[in-house]
Structure prediction request, 577 residues.
Amino acid sequence: EKTIERARLTGSYGYLLKPYDPKELCLTLELVIQKHKIEKKLKENERFLITTLKSIGDGVIACDLSCSVRIMNPVAEVITGMNSMEAEGKNIKEIFKPLGPNDTLQIDFIDPVIHYGQSVSNTRHHLLTRSGIQVPVEYSVAPIRDEWGDMYGFVLVFRDISERRADEEINKSARTELERLVKIRTSDLQKANDLLKEEVSDRKVAEAKYYRLATALESAGESILITDTNGSIQYVNPAFEKTTGYSRVEVMGKNPRILNSGIHDLNYYNNMWSILSQGDVWRGVITNRKKDGTLFHVEQTLAPVKDDSGQTISFVSVMRDITERKKTDEELKNYRHHLEELVSERASELLLANRELEAFSYSVSHDLRAHIRSLEGFTNALLEDFGSQLNEQAKDYLKRIIKAKDRMKQFIEDMLRLSRVVRSEFVKSEVNLSHICDEVADDIRHQYPARDIRFLIDQGIMVSGDARLLRTVIENLFGNAVKYSSKKEFSLVEFFLRKEGDHYYYVVKDNGDGFDMSLSDRLFAPFQRLHSRDEFEGNGVGLATVQRIITRHGGKIGAFSEPGKGAEFFFTIPERK
Prediction:
């Protein structure tokens, strides 16, 4: 009766074949009990790690050395659009597709990790999802090593930085798409040794999966911290120790307040816990303090960890150190402020220079012109009143004085024109450059009625600019073309538009004397001449004026020539109509 009662209570495990060895029976029972305890502990650890991994606010993918996906958490599923069951065993290149320039795939983290065991951190790319959508992500990759330091895989941690997806959708996808528990298959055993062999095999599989989950957290490049519902720290990974300076032993059981920098007020933390208490994920930038007192800045994701019933059992925090980025941003801000101060100083200096230039222009316009008029008056008086008493040499001297006076007068006019070009208001409009060329050509024909001057002007050339200043450009270029071709049988002046690649050039070409290109560096400098005054009159201000006008339009000007073969001047104006 006792045997029957015991069999009823113990089930199939209570049946024993007789005869049997009591010591062997005790050993078998102890092994079964020990196996049951280990199995229970493994299931608890595995459930905890799976639940933790599912609750992390960043995407996590763990791969072996062949780049095959072994573990993929729900956030990774949401971002990539790939189900973990489909992804398991596939190459990471099929799941995680970062895009480089021109939307080309740029998976540049595999070689450093696989071949050199190097970590890749804080890399930004657009990720091409399964549905074809491009999502901006920031990711880090770190090798996974065993207890002997040998690498057997790598872990990829990434996050959606577009903030276009609602936290509720991420949590919903994470809860509905990943519910996978490892069940250990059991069968009726005929012999104790067979039972132990099968159970040990299943236990090794569970241990391997648990080990992969644990090493994925240990190898992550971001700081990971897990607390219980009372705020006591239960776990930190090596990245946390490296970033904060605290060892795992020092922080276990303590509150994360040990990192409090004192910079954020109470309302900041109240808002954080208000979001967490509603079961939502909190994201933000926070300033913490290291063990040595140094401040550091992190992008933090804080999420509740829930069990199968939906109860919060712990909290997991992922922190990415952005101290260097913040430092760079602050340096750029200071540099920008410094530049603004320099610009303000230069503007003041320019305003002062303009005022001085205006004063100089007034002096030139008023005082020098008065002296020239006086010189002109007395010279003419000498010729009119005493011309009959002067010999030919004296008359020649007076004529030279008059010519010098005329050159000075023209020089002053050119100087004033150059000054006005720099200081005058820029009035932008749509300008018919061909029409301006026609008008200037007519003026030149009336100015030199005895000369054979021919113009070839392309029509319909429109630009956006200051019509008055552009007319000055054409007057100077056409005037030079006519002047330097005066020794030819006839003067030929052409104006046309030339396209080279993506650039448009406005060209003025003549059949004049030309010049040596070795002297071209003096071409647009004020008061520089490539020909003597005996050959051609001028003071070297015209082309300097042209260059300043083209520069004010945001363009450039150049020239090409050969002696005796004419010259070609070409300029650009960015806003072409």
Remarks:
- The chain has a mean pLDDT of 80.
- The longest helix spans residues 323-386.
- DSSP finds 16 helices and 18 strands in the chain.
